[in-house]
Specification:
Layout lengths: L26 H21 L5 E5 L2 E8 L13 H23 L6 H24 L2 E9 L2 E2 L5 H28 L1
Antiparallel strand pairs: 1-2, 2-3, 3-4
Helix pairs in contact: 1-3, 2-3, 3-4
Length: about 180
């Protein structure tokens, strides 16, 4: 009997390869991260005054801040046009990510699909803020002694973790390609 790895055969007894789900199976992760991001920001806004600080660890504070710019407050001093630029960029990148995820195999390319789902979630989480209130709510504020780093949020964390996973996946793929050619 002619079977594939899936063990399925058609009515003629020929092996039938199981069609693997696309990378879109990781979209529920995006939804979870967006919900966590929006709930955490809502809670912070309701319970903290602007710039109010609560020490969590010796190197970590919770501080309500608003960011009209991008990462590290890039362009935060601009006159307002940057809001629409960042919204447009997020929609363009998000559309590209969703299309890319649709071409991936959800299980065998799971690390890449997971990375993209996290980046997508972070972009959407911050776009929701920009559309709804005109700026991004940041509240996680790391520091070392008197050196304070830019505040961030759950969406920013998802983008960072997603980017790290994306780099790790690329590194892993390049090692696999080198082994295959050796």
């Amino acid at each position: 009997m002619n079977e594939t790895l899936s063990g399925r055969t058609d009515s003629a007894g020929h092996g039938v390869a199981a069609r693997e789900a696309s990378g879109w199976i990781w979209l529920p992760l995006s939804v979870l991260v967006i919900v966590a991001d929006q709930l955490s920001k809502s809670w912070i806004v309701q319970h903290f005054e602007l710039y109010e600080r609560k020490r969590i660890l010796s190197v970590l504070d919770i501080t309500l801040m608003y960011n009209t710019g991008a990462a590290f407050s890039f362009l935060s001093d601009a006159s307002g046009w940057q809001r629409w630029l960042f919204i447009g960029l997020a929609f363009a990148v998000g559309t590209g990510i969703v299309a890319w995820m649709g071409r991936l195999r959800g299980r065998t390319q799971g690390l890449l699909a997971c990375a993209l789902a996290l980046i997508l979630a972070g972009a959407i989480g911050n776009v929701i803020d920009r559309l709804r209130i005109g700026h991004v709510v940041d509240f996680i504020h790391a520091h070392w002694n008197e050196a304070y780093f830019p505040a961030f949020n759950v969406a920013d964390s998802a983008i960072t973790v997603g980017a790290i996973l994306l780099l790790f996946d690329a590194w892993r793929e390049s090692r696999g390609a080198k082994r295959a050619s050796a």
